[in-house]
Write a structure and sequence with these properties.
Elements lengths: L7 H10 L3 H19 L10 E2 L8 E5 L10 E9 L2 H70 L3 H21 L6 H25 L4 E8 L3 H4 L6 E6 L2 E12 L5 E11 L21 E9 L4 H13 L3 H5 L5
Antiparallel strand pairs: 1-3, 2-3, 3-4, 4-8, 5-6, 6-7, 7-8
Length: 331
């Protein structure tokens, strides 16, 4: 079941473009109905060996693609899958198990620590608090007396002497700020530092493993072309899939998150007129029509797996019923 998400920008667009509540309702209804139809063409995980992020299963989005008024409003829906990687999944499971075990060990050790050291720690904490309160009270008393002295000097016209007293107040305040410190119990801090170091090491291992994941985001746009669906990065035709021209956008290798360099490739199928024009228009002049559709498979892979991942995504795109999808395009 797809989640229905319309962004704040989308709502702003609706309100900006619509002069009446009837027009607002019509635009919202049209957007929801159209994007729901588009979402039905997004590929599923099976039988392609895709998996979802356990913390965010099959993330998807539905809504308006931008908040700039065009003649034909751009809608979008997408779904992200991860390529199945048994060895990587095994390593991630191991890290997760170690994190769970560390949490249990931390809780047990802290409970035992408080049983042994709790009374002493509470006694020292009370003594520290009493010392801080006494220092704070002494500071307040001294500053009150000096403030009164400075005021009297000002009243007597002795500005320089008064400024000297104010400088003394500032120095006292700064000095006492350094003396008013939070309570520290060294054995507890050493224990916490040890556990934190192990936690940080596991988090770094997990981050490195997650940075190796390969994914594909299938996206369907309306009222865009291959070039502007690729956000200005050049695209080129590379073949045919399911009787439709297949375009490629290659962003090359980039380092993302960890130390691993990823390859980014977008495979695009375009349904619509070659010369589609969708200019910016004034508020309220947009038309609720689908004039073109772009289907894209945005691949994030690695150099050694990119060829195989591209081949899989091409097979997935070939299963989409482009003829039925094209039926959503209006004359």
């Amino acid at each position: 079941m797809h989640r229905q998400i319309f962004s704040v920008a989308a709502i702003s667009l609706l309100l900006a473009l619509s002069a009446t509540s009837q027009e607002q309702d019509a635009m919202m209804h049209w957007g929801e109905a159209t994007v729901e139809k588009l979402a039905g063409f997004l590929p599923n995980a099976t039988p392609w060996g895709f998996t979802a992020d356990s913390s965010n299963p099959a993330p998807d989005f539905k809504g308006f693609a931008n908040d700039v008024p065009h003649r034909y409003i751009a809608l979008t829906t997408n779904k992200t899958w991860y390529f199945d990687d048994p060895e990587l999944s095994k390593q991630l499971d191991q890290v997760h198990n170690e994190k769970d075990a560390l949490k249990r060990e931390t809780d047990t050790t802290l409970s035992e620590f408080m049983r042994v050291h709790g009374d002493e720690m509470e006694k020292l904490q009370k003594e520290h608090l009493a010392t801080m309160e006494a220092a704070s009270h002494a500071q307040a008393t001294e500053i009150t007396a000096l403030s009164k002295q400075a005021q009297e000097l000002f009243q007597q016209g002795k500005s320089q002497e008064a400024q000297a007293v104010l400088s003394k107040i500032s120095a006292i305040t700064q000095s006492n700020q350094n003396k008013l410190t939070p309570f520290h119990y060294e054995p507890l801090e050493q224990m916490n530092a040890s556990f934190q170091k192990r936690q940080d090491d596991l988090t770094e291992r997990e981050r490195e493993l997650l940075s190796r994941r390969r994914s594909v985001e299938f996206t369907i746009f309306t009222n865009r072309t291959p070039s502007n669906a690729a956000f200005g990065i050049p695209v080129k035709p590379i073949g045919v899939v399911a009787g439709r021209t297949l375009y490629l956008q290659d962003r090359g290798l980039m380092t993302m998150g960890g130390s691993h360099r990823h390859a980014f490739v977008n495979l695009i199928v375009y349904l619509g007129p070659e010369n589609l024009q969708n200019p910016h228009v004034q508020l309220g002049q947009s038309e609720l029509k689908v004039k073109s559709i772009v289907v894209a498979g945005w691949i994030e892979s690695r150099a050694e797996t990119l060829e195989a991942d591209e081949a899989t995504v091409k097979k997935v795109l070939a299963t989409i019923d482009f003829n039925r999808l094209s039926a959503l395009i209006e004359p």
